[in-house]
Amino acid sequence: MKNLSILGITTLLACSLLFVVCKSESHLENPYKDKTEKELESLSNEKYRKIVAFASPKSCTDATEWEMMEIRTVCGISYLPYHKSVDKTKLQNMINDNNKLMEIYQPMMAPRINCTPYQKPTGIICKEGQATIKYE
């Protein structure tokens, strides 16, 4: 009975600790929330250029060597082709950072731009050495 009580207390303590850690991480503040629109625009352009450069380390000659990943833009979710040789974790981290920026920047831009809805991607093709998303 005593062992059961210790096990119960230990389990409760572990669950409480896990809840506190998860809750604190999920409410981290967005590092871009205090930036001006001009700063966000500049950062957005810079980050996107770096992401594309990282994702495309070589020219596209064989579309089967490429995959795609979602990325948030001022018009919503778009798709980015990336070469299978790139570090996918690093690319995902770069995209996650971009997406945080877009959480702040997109609502500022939405009232002033006319976005055409993105279509569903069907694959990747090589066009003039560039990996390009093919849409329906």
Could you explain how this protein is built, in words?
- The protein is an alpha+beta fold.
- It has three helices and four strands.
- The strands form two sheets. A two-stranded antiparallel sheet has the order 1-2. The protein has a two-stranded antiparallel ribbon with strand order 3-4.
- β1 and β2 (76-83) form a beta hairpin.
- It is globular, with a radius of gyration of 21 Å.
- The protein starts with a helix and ends with a strand.
- Residues 20-25 have low confidence and may be disordered.
List keywords for this structure.
21% strand, alpha+beta, globular, 4 strands, 136 residues, 3 helices, two-stranded antiparallel ribbon
State which percent range the strand residues make up. Answer: 15-25%
Overall shape: it is: globular
Number of H- or I-type helical stretches: 3
Fraction in helix: 40-55%
Largest sheet: 2 strands, antiparallel
Q: For the CA atoms, what is the radius of gyration?
A: 21 Å
> What string, H for helix and E for strand, traces the elements in order?
HHEEHEE
As laid out across the biggest beta sheet, the strand order is 1-2
Separation of the first and last Cα atoms: 64 Å
What integer is the average pLDDT?
Answer: 86
Count of DSSP E strands? Answer: 4
Uncertain regions spanning at least 5 consecutive residues: 20-25
Structural class, from secondary structure content? alpha+beta
Layout: helices, strands, pairs:
Elements: H1 2-26, H2 37-55, E1 66-73, E2 76-83, H3 88-109, E3 121-127, E4 130-135
Antiparallel strand pairs: 1-2, 3-4
